[in-house]
Amino acid sequence: MGLSLALSLAACSDAGTRPDVEGETLRLGRVHVVLEPIDDLVANGEPAEGGDAQLEVSARFAFVRGLDEEFARARVGVTMLPHDALRPGECVPTDSLSLVAPEPEDSAEPRELVLVDAGDLSVRVGESDFEVPLSLVPDLLPYMSGVEYLHEGESLALAPASTPAVVVSAKGSMTDDLPPFATEGATPPSLGLFAGDAEIAQQRDGALVFRWAAPQRAEPITVRLLPLSSGEPVGDEITCVLADEGAARVDLRRLAMLGLPPQAEALRITASRPSVASFDVGEFTGTEFVVERRDRLVLPLLSR
To answer: Does the reported pTM lie above 0.90?
Structure first.
């Protein structure tokens, strides 16, 4: 077992090391922390007084050479965030936000897409600490290799009014590619999604209406709409970016054109105000640090 572990770690080290190549290199970095309720809030239900949130963390640091940025971002999972890709009021099928651009045509220029090892990486949310394991990325392309950090499944107590600090730290790679770093952000406040009889009744006029707590800032919110039938997903998820005005009114006919199926009995609304900052570490200038706190509400759909 010890030999197996040593070999595994050696493979990760080799895979996550930037190749010694010349030429202009693009560097992409993102750490994304998501806090999402474990339980759904049902429209007209009792307000949530507390509860647990599930933690998801991903971190990727990529050196790119000889490839288009859009293609590279899609391949390593750091596509544009919805509020950067869409204007307020726009809705699209969620899958369309992560479509992989076609692979560039053959070129004499060398290609490299390497996800760099940042060493041991951990996240602290409030007083809770979590280690984020790394794993080898699939070698789907001959010029793609390296490691990524993924962690999910842990839960922690998170009251609606709580906005704990989030600290991400890494011990650095065994080379000079990524020195040790630590960066801090804050958990955004809960949106407090809700919808009562008056909001639900507006579906008869062809409008999906729901509300949330008073806006905190000028940035838009991201809303994901998942159709449900008998509590299970039916059809494809739709993502909207909406002005942070405390209420939304979305045309149901428009949602039907985007994939809302007629047999859907409810929508699971997942909304968030992502907190986005940037930090510099080594040659990775402008690395994104995203803390996303999500709220969920299941809204029944009247017969259409």
So the answer is: no
